[in-house]
Design a protein that fits this description.
CATH architecture of the largest domain: Alpha-Beta Barrel
Helix content: 40-55%
CATH class of the largest domain: Alpha Beta
CATH superfamily of the largest domain: Glycosidases
Shape: elongated
CATH topology of the largest domain: TIM Barrel
Low-confidence stretches: 1-32, 73-102
Structural class: alpha/beta
Number of domains: 2
Strand content: 15-25%
Mean pLDDT: 82
Radius of gyration: 49 Å
Largest sheet: 8 strands, mixed, barrel
Order of helices and strands: HHHHEEEEEEHEEHEHEHEHEEE
Length: 411
């Protein structure tokens, strides 16, 4: 690099430049204008570049600010979660390494990534489950309170809470009998049950009534005008053929059996019969079945022949002391004998009998006549006839009478 210049040489150059300016002034003017335009163009280019650079800087700044805001919001949410879980001091979740107050710019929230140990997650889960269980328990108690205050019995209020059990009260105790889902289940739908203004029940499918109206009678109804009964729309009647005494054990023919079965059949009402049993041995069950077959032989019996087995409300009644298996075997002997004679056997029972006194699985092949005085279709297993009231009123009968609906009508 040259540090000093030759003075004579510079003087000669300056003189030559002056001479050229005098001779070529017009050309210099043009060149000057061109230089001015180039200068202006350069200045414009510089400002355009400066504007673009400013916009780039602004975009970077806004992006950074947005990222820091989002990170701060996440940190705030995580901090709220930790506070709600009651985790303070040594139990608090740990922040990521390197995130300390010294690294945080002034005026900005400190971004934190909250993490949990497996033990902390287990504790949170346990707390949530406990709170959920407490809330559910409170809801159940409140529901029970409302039901009981509204007049619902304790057993009716409890039943919906145990969908896998049959809840029945017997002997002053609440009995929870597991439902066997392998047995034939009831296909009846609660919404299809309709209670008419006169208190009668019907079962509908769509707009059509598919149930059949029936009654059951014995000597306790006295003399019956069967023509009026038929005119009122009764389709079938179960007539008591006889019973065995729960004390003496004697087999007795119902004194109005012949009168009732003749009156029903002659007025177009389909007839079935039932026998109130107190058999305590298989031999007595066979005796009862043969007694029934002899009594019904002269008559047209289109509906089932029914074995009525139930617990008598007298402590020393002879059948009350039987075990479930003994009672089940007695019912089986009766039904087998009836079936062998060409009739349709059926078993009458209430909820206590069905859930506690009989082995339902062993008697599944036989039709059931189920007694339950309420609107709810609670019983889980299949049955053909529902006795829904013992306080019915029917023209032609001067006393209360049992009311039934059948979901089939026998030929």
């Amino acid at each position: 690099m040259r540090i000093a210049r030759d003075t004579d040489t510079e003087t000669r150059a300056d003189e030559m430049d002056d001479a050229r300016r005098e001779v070529r002034r017009p050309e210099d003017t043009v060149r000057t204008r061109r230089k001015k335009r180039r200068k202006q163009s350069g200045i414009l280019t510089f400002f355009v570049f400066l504007g673009c650079f400013a916009m780039l800087v602004l975009a970077v700044f806004l992006g950074t600010a947005l990222f820091m805001w989002m990170d701060g919001a996440q940190s705030k949410n995580n901090g709220s979660l930790a506070a709600s879980a009651g985790q303070t001091g040594e139990d608090a979740p740990q922040a990521s390494a390197g995130q300390t107050g010294e690294d945080t710019p002034q005026g900005q929230s400190q971004p934190q990534e909250v993490t949990y140990t497996q033990a902390q997650l287990d504790e949170l889960t346990a707390q949530a489950r406990q709170e959920g269980a407490q809330q559910e328990a409170q809801r159940i108690l409140e529901s029970l309170k409302q039901d009981l205050a509204g007049g619902t019995s304790a057993v009716e209020a409890l039943r919906p809470l145990y969908p896998e059990d049959i809840l029945v009260v017997s002997g002053g105790k609440f009995n929870f009998v597991p439902i066997d889902r392998g047995l034939k289940a009831s296909t009846l739908v609660q919404e299809n049950v309709q209670v008419l203004e006169n208190g009668q029940y019907v079962y509908r499918e769509g707009e059509q009534i598919v149930s059949h109206r029936g009654i059951d009678v014995s000597k306790h109804q006295g003399a019956i005008d069967w023509a009026q009964v038929a005119a009122d729309g009764v389709e079938f009647a179960f007539i008591r053929v006889g019973n065995r005494g729960y004390g003496t054990g004697a087999v007795v023919l119902d004194e109005r059996f012949a009168e009732n079965i003749t009156g029903a059949v002659s007025n177009g009402i389909k007839a079935g019969v039932y026998f109130f049993s107190q058999a305590i041995t298989e031999a007595e069950a066979l005796e009862e079945a043969q007694f029934v077959l002899t009594a019904i032989a002269p008559y047209r019996v289109e509906c089932p022949v029914i074995f009525d087995v139930e617990k008598v409300g007298v402590s020393d009644a002879r059948m009350n002391a039987l075990s479930q298996q003994e009672r089940t075997q007695i019912a089986r002997v009766f039904c087998q004998t009836i079936a062998q004679a060409g009739y349709t056997p059926m078993i009458y029972c209430n909820m206590e009998t069905a859930a506690l006194l009989l082995d339902w699985a062993s008697l599944e092949d036989y039709e059931k006549w189920y007694a339950y005085y309420g609107e709810t279709l609670y019983f889980p297993y299949a049955y053909s006839v529902w006795q829904y009231s013992d306080k019915g009123k029917v023209p032609g009968i001067n006393t209360d009478v049992d009311l039934n609906i059948s979901f089939t009508l026998w030929e």
